[in-house]
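Hi support team,

I submitted a single chain yesterday and got back a structure, but I'm not sure I'm reading the token output correctly. Could someone confirm the output below corresponds to the sequence I sent? I've pasted both exactly as they appear in my results page.

Thanks,
R.
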Amino acid sequence: MLNNLSVVIRRIDQRVVSKESALQTVQHRTRHIQAEITAGDQQRDLLLRHLSSLVIAGSTSLEAILENKARQGSLQRKVAEMELLLADKHYQLEQQSQQQASLKAERNKLQRKSEKMTAHLRQRQQHQVQCRQRQHESETEEQLNWQR
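Hi R., thanks for writing in. Yes, this is the structure output for that exact sequence:
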């Protein structure tokens, strides 16, 4: 019985280690996504500043106006693409956060189960030791009684 408990505890502990490893992987991916979001925000801000800085600078020729509008359109497309990318990254970050919370809950549940079973195993082992001591004391007392 005690060996079975030890095996179960060992398996639970292995699952805890597995959950911890998965949690570290998720945390690493979360940090990576956060870095991508930060970089994307900076890039979007640069594009928006550049877009707002485009002015005709006194030029009224149709060619200059059209060229400026084309640059503005190109920058606006890049900003829109960046916004979509950032929205996707925020969604990924939310998914990672949910997965991280789930893994933490599973790991904590398994750890509590392992601790509970380990405490139970120790109680059983102590009980066995006490029973053996009593048996040994009884046998010793019997032997002493036989010798008298």
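A quick pointer for reading it: The chain has one domain: 2-147. Let us know if anything else looks off.

Best,
Support desk
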